[in-house]
Amino acid sequence: MGPDAVPVNPGDGPIPGDGWDTDPGTEPVAAPRLAVTSEVGTLRTVLLHRPGNELRRLTPRNNDQLLFDGIPWVERAQQEHDTFAGVLRERGVEVLLLADLLAETLAVSGAARIQGISAAVDARRLGHTLADELAAHLRGVPARELAEILMAGMTFDELPFEADTTSLVRRMHHGADFVIDPLPNLLFTRDSSFWVGPRVAITALALPARKRETSLTDLVYAFHPRFLGVRRAYESHTAPIEGGDVLLLARGVLAVGVGERTSPAGAEALARSLFDDNLAHTVLVVPIAQSRATMHLDTVCTMVDTDALVMYSAVRETLSAFTIQRAEDYERDGGKVIMRGPDPFLPAAADAMGIGKLRVIDTGLDGVTAEREQWDDGNNTLALRPGVVVAYERNEMTNARLLDAGIEVLPIPGSELGSGRGGPRCLSCPLSRDDV
Q1: Which residue among 179, 280, 426, 427 is the active-site one?
Q2: Considering the entire predicted model, what is its pTM?
Q3: Which terminus of the chain is less hemmed in, N or C, by CB atoms within 10 Å?
Q4: Residue 30 CA to its chain's centroid (Å)
Q5: Active site includes 429?
Q6: Which is higher by pLDDT, 42 or 20?
Q7: SS3 string of the chain?
Q8: How far is CA 306 from the centre of its chain?
Q9: How many CB atoms lie within 10 A of CB 372?
Q10: pLDDT value at residue 166
């Protein structure tokens, strides 16, 4: 077994990160069941990505293209992320890190290695000669190093072999140009996958800078031993849909934002897939403004309790929803659905959830403060259990309103993490929550 290989047979020992307690003298503790049926059930296991060298690829020349509003201070972003992960662990949450899972996956699976390299090395852009040479080199790279390259990218200057004088692509590119693009948005693990019940949905990210993220997430779910036997809820390679637009309002009830990142076709395809698998009975499709400030539904509202959400006050009265429901004779009648709307979102959501009314906690105290704190992800909270959320500390007014409403707020720093426009919910993909 190589130096970075991971044992896969029961007799070989535990797999790193597999959720088993292996301290000497202790009995193994089973990992939490992988399933998510709400936004607020007690969080047991979460997937994060600690920002790394992919953020060091950002420059004033490429940060807009790579979807960042500034150049983050990487060391501070890592400190902020470590604080976030520490808060989760202190509250009993098992934290899995994407970089570790990816390296472990590449160590145990040759198929994962081949697929990851194939997704990263684009012969249409590099030409077949250079692409073949690079792919051949990467197939022999240790798993941890390969995972780093797939996440952080590679420049022409970093190519580990001498230039082929017959490669026009290499001769015409600057050394600092990317032969493999970096993925600085990986830290927003919510978008490339999300769970509905015991199944995982692999998304289709809309913008070119993020499309390859799902290839890495897909490898982990397909080949890492922790996820053996996990079934897929939805896979789309055409219609865009992103996890930040999907809220699990209650068991069987989802809201899907349609705007800059998720298309109507993506929302409809998700709804029908969930109906086919009997994972949902109602999907609320919510149009949102196609702008940077409101790129996802979870930038304007997130659940903070079983009957409460925090919401950007400017959209409270205007947010609407189309309701799609699984008809009683859905299977017998070839996938018949009932569709109505648009109707006001809040009463439509409450009706679908089977509650009288949703409690709404507005962002900020006035229009200017609300707009500032919405931009700084004041609405983007991560619930650890009903009535307990993680939020960026900078959104003082919104956090104060949450506290006044009886919601416990666990504040974390986010000055650098927020430069990519994402809060605690964006930074996390829950894998296991208790039912509520």
Answers
A1: 426
A2: 0.88
A3: N
A4: 25
A5: no
A6: 42
A7: CCCCCCCCCHHHCCCCCCCCCCCCCCCCCCCCCCEECCCCCCEEEEEECCCCCCHHHCCCCCCCCCCCCCCCCHHHHHHHHHHHHHHHHHCCCEEEEHHHHHHHHHHHCHHHHHHHHHHHCCHHHHCHHHHHHHHHHHCCCCHHHHHHHHHHCEEHHHCCCCCCCCCHHHHHCCCCCEEECCCHHHHCCCCCEEEEECEEEECECCCHHHCCHHHHHHHHHHHCHHHCCCCEEEECCCCCECHHHEEEEECCEEEEEECCCCCHHHHHHHHHHHHHCCCCCEEEEEECCCCCCCCCHHHCEEEEECCEEEECHHHCCCCEEEEEEECCCCCCCCCCEEEEEEEEHHHHHHHHHCCCCCEEEECCCCHHHHHHHHHCCCCCCEEEECCEEEEECCCHHHHHHHHHCCCEEEEECCCCHHHHCCCCCCCCEEEEECCC
A8: 22
A9: 17
A10: 63
Q: Is the separation of the CB atoms in 74 and 187 below 8 Å?
A: no
Backbone region of residue 233 per phi and psi (left: phi > 0; alpha: psi in -120 to 50; beta: other values): alpha
Residue 369 confidence class, pLDDT cut points 50, 70, 90: confident
d(CA 381, CA 389): 6
Residue 281 near residue 314, CB atoms below 8 Å = no
C-beta of residue 49 within 8 angstroms of C-beta of residue 189: yes
Per-residue model confidence as pLDDT tens digits over 105-160:
999 999 999 999 999 999 998 998 899 999 999 999 999 999 999 999 999 999 98
- Both tokens of 343, joined, read 């109707």
